[in-house]
Amino acid sequence: MASVGALQNMRFINYDESSDIYRRICTAIVFLEVYTEWTKLLFTTWVTFHLFCFAVFHKNMKKLEALYVVTSLLVPALIAALPLVTQTYGSRFTGFTCYIQALNGSVASIERIALWDGPAMFILIAASTTMVVVVIKLAMLAVANGVSVLVCLLAAFLLRWLKLYKKLVYRLALYQVLSALAMASVGATQVVFINYDELSTIYRRLCTAIGFLWLYSQWTKLLFTMCVTFHLFCFAVLHKNLKKLEVLYVVTSLLVPALIAIVPLITHTYGLSPGGNACYIYANTSVAFMERLALWDGPAMLMLIAASTAMVVMVTKLTSQVC
C-alpha cells in the first residue's frame, strides 16, 4: 500500500487527461491502491476477530487461517474491479493522485461511499470497539494473576516480617500462600498459547510442561489447604496439637501432587483446551476425560466439601464455647 502511494507521488504531478498512457497508468495505480487498502483493512479485521474470539470466547480459530487469507486477497479484487467496469477511476480534483474520482460523475461519488468510505468507517469502528473489549478482558486476566501474585508475596512478607512463621499454624499458612503464588505464576504463563501450533514440537513440549505444573500446583495448594483445615480442626474440636506432623504435611503436599501429575505424562493426555487458551488434561479422548474426573475434579470436590464441613463444625464449636 505504501509502495502504491509512492507511485502516485512520482507519476501524476503532470497528469495529462488527453494522454492514453497516463489514463491507463492512472487506472492501474488506483486499482492497486483500492486493492491494497482493502487487503490491509481485511487482514486487520481478521486479526481483531481472532484475538476477540480467543480473549472473550476462549476459542482458538486457527483452523480459519485459509479463510482469512482467501477472503483478504479475493474480496478486495472484486471490489477494486467494479470501478473498472463503471470507468470511474481517474485523477483527483487536485490532479496529484488517481482514485475513484471521475471529474463529472455522481456515480463515482456513490462508489467511493459504497466501496470504501462507508464500509471502512463501519469496520474500523467495529474493530476499535472489539479491541477495547479485548484489551479490557486481557487486562482483567493480567490484573487477576498479578493481584494474586502480589497478595501472596505480601502475605509471605508479613509472615516473615512479623515472625509468625515460628508457630506451626502460620507456617502451614505460609506454605499455602507459596503454593498459591506458584499456581498464579503458572496460570499467567498460559497466555503464550494464544498462537499455539500443534505441529510445533516446542509448543507441544511447552504445553505438556505447563499442564504438568498447573496440575501439580493445584494439588499442592489443595493439600496444604487440607492440612491447615485438618490441623485447626484437631486443635479446636479434638483439642489435639499435632505439630509433630509438620514434616508429614509438607512431604505429602509436595510429593503426592507430583505422583498425580505424572499420570497424564504417561498416558500422553496433556494438551491444549478446546477453547485454545490453556494447557491441561485436554486431549480429546475418553481416557483424558476419565483422568480429569479421577485426578482432579472428583477428589477436589470431595476435599472441598470435607474442608467446608470441618470449618462449619469448628465455627459452631468455637461459637458455642464463647456464648
Descriptive overview:
The protein has eight helices and four strands. It is mainly α. It has a two-stranded antiparallel ribbon with strand order 1-2. A hairpin with a 6-residue loop joins strand 3 and strand 4. Residues 7-13 have low confidence and may be disordered.
Tell me the β content: under 5%
Number of strands: 4
Which sequence of SSEs, written as H and E, runs from N to C? HHHEEHHHHEEH
Mean pLDDT over all positions: 79
Structural class: mainly alpha
Taking the sheet with the most strands, its summary is: 2 strands, antiparallel
Number of helices: 8
What low-confidence regions span 5 or more consecutive residues with pLDDT below 50?
7-13
For the termini, the CA-CA separation is 79 Å
Please estimate the helix content: over 70%
Query: How would you write the strand order of the largest sheet?
Result: 1-2
Shape: elongated
Rg for CA atoms: 31 Å
Q: Which tags fit this structure?
A:
elongated, two-stranded antiparallel ribbon, two-stranded antiparallel sheet, 4 strands, single chain
In short:
The chain has eight helices and four strands, in the order αααββααααββα.
List the helices and strands and how they pair.
Layout: H1 2-11, H2 20-57, H3 65-86, E1 89-91, E2 98-100, H4 106-161, H5 168-188, H6 201-236, H7 246-267, E3 270-272, E4 279-281, H8 286-322
Antiparallel strand pairs: 1-2, 3-4
Helix pairs in contact: 1-2, 2-3, 2-4, 3-4, 4-5, 5-6, 6-7, 6-8, 7-8
